[in-house]
């Protein structure tokens, strides 16, 4: 039977979370908001509109949400030519592909950003498809991104594993009915990932690759 390995990208395969934090912090600063970086970090992984709502509250001027999102996108876009993949991220995807897993990405990135991330990973031959925020009505922690990834793979939830680095990833995977694996390289504590639904937690893609025989991706 087919089986699917679904991967988040930012903070899971590519070391971008702190770049996102800095870009969002600067976007907020330019708009006159003082938002601590640690608070931004905890919100990274949410869709832009949900991230802004979480950090600025429901009584904000929602008419400026698009302006904030556009500022973040422009600032983060300056890094597209040098996004750093985590060690062995591409090797992990290629190994799973060789082992018979259908590898699908589930990410909020699209367009030029997604292209830059895929260049950084350098494993296109192993990636069967990508479920982006543009393909669903709700992003993580809603289950739709993971469910769409499963549709692309043609695999039921019980034959899939979802790997991510945030609480939002774990909640999305858990709600979609897939087994969740967390990685610590995005900066979220192990206890938080486990509480949100992670069945196993690894340091980073290299650690997961080295531990495959004993992992949920065995």
UniProtKB/TrEMBL annotation:
Record-level Gene Ontology MF annotations: phosphoglycolate phosphatase activity
UniProt GO cellular component terms: cytosol
Alphabetical keyword list: Hydrolase
GO biological process, alphabetically ordered: DNA repair
Listed Pfam families: Hydrolase (PF00702)
Protein name per UniProt: HAD family hydrolase
Provenance organism: Streptomyces haneummycinicus
């Amino acid at each position: 039977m087919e089986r699917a390995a679904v991967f988040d990208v930012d903070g899971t395969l590519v070391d971008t979370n702190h770049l996102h934090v800095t870009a969002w912090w600067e976007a907020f600063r330019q708009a006159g908001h003082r938002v601590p970086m640690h608070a931004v970090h905890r919100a990274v992984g949410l869709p832009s509109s949900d991230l802004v709502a979480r950090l600025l509250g429901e009584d904000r001027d929602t008419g400026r949400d698009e302006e904030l999102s556009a500022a973040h996108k422009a600032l983060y876009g300056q890094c597209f030519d040098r996004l750093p993949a985590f060690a062995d991220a591409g090797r992990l995807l290629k190994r799973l592909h060789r082992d018979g897993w259908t590898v699908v990405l589930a990410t909020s990135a699209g367009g030029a950003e997604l292209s830059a991330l895929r260049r950084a990973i350098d494993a296109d031959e192993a990636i069967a498809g990508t479920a982006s925020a543009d393909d669903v009505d709700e992003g993580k922690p809603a289950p739709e991104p993971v469910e769409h990834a499963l549709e692309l793979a043609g695999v039921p939830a019980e034959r899939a594993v979802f790997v991510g680095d945030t609480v939002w990833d774990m909640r999305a995977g858990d709600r979609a009915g897939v087994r969740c694996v967390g990685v610590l390289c995005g900066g979220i504590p192990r206890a938080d990932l486990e509480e949100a639904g992670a069945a196993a937690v690894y340091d980073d893609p290299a650690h997961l690759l080295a531990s495959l025989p004993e992992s949920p991706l065995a």
